[in-house]
């Protein structure tokens, strides 16, 4: 059996899955996708026509799995490792999935929108959309700051899927809309940065940070 992650070290949703893999100590192979290279992009799109990274290939059954949260769920179901990233308790699992959705929809998505706008040609920019995305981020920071006043990790006292989802977008979002006086959120982000799985993922992205338009 070989698990292959199709990814790029700078891509934030790929980082989410890398953190889960490192956290669990699951062995896997890496296949870097370069969406700027037509051959690499076409090979990736042949696996997942949506064309968004990451993708996981499991040689057992020749299965291709897409979408970061689903990949992490798949890994937990089929290759449970050192970490339990989705709690066995059904209510705790729902809280974890809710926090995962929150980070994807209300932190990751607006962060990507702001970055995407910076990558557009000057005459195609959307200041109104960027302002709206910045507003979503500020609102999310306020909600998260309140939550993190009483929590160690995103969904409670254990490191879970939700923390894998949180670290990458917070890293980039903080560069675009600083956490400012949201001190509980800032302290949580500092804890995340000290987690070996997160620190490793961020350090592997370091050589590519020059491409981030932040
Ligand atoms: N919902 C997807 C989002 C994946 C995503 O947005 N991936 C970005 C990289 S972080 C991507 O592939 N962007 C390339 C593009 O949109 O063409 C997931 O959770 O995996």
Please supply descriptive tags for the structure shown above:
alpha+beta, Glutaredoxin, 214 residues, globular, 8 helices
Write structural notes for this entry.
The structure is a single chain. 57% of the residues lie in helices and 8% in strands. It is α+β, with helices and mostly antiparallel strands and 214 residues long. It has 2 domains: 3-78, Glutaredoxin (3-Layer(aba) Sandwich), CATH 3.40.30.10; 90-203, Glutathione S-transferase Yfyf (Class Pi), Chain A, domain 2, CATH 1.20.1050. Strand 1, helix 1 and strand 2 form a beta-alpha-beta unit. The radius of gyration is 17 Å and the shape is globular. The N and C termini lie far apart (40 Å). Bound molecules: glutathione. Glutathione binds at residues 11-13, 35, 51-53, 67-68.
What is the element layout, followed by pairings?
Layout: E1 3-7, H1 12-24, E2 29-32, H2 38-47, E3 55-58, E4 63-66, H3 68-78, H4 90-118, H5 127-148, H6 161-176, H7 183-194, H8 196-205
Parallel strand pairs: 1-2
Antiparallel strand pairs: 1-3, 3-4
Helix pairs in contact: 1-3, 1-6, 1-8, 4-5, 4-6, 5-7
Bound molecules: glutathione.
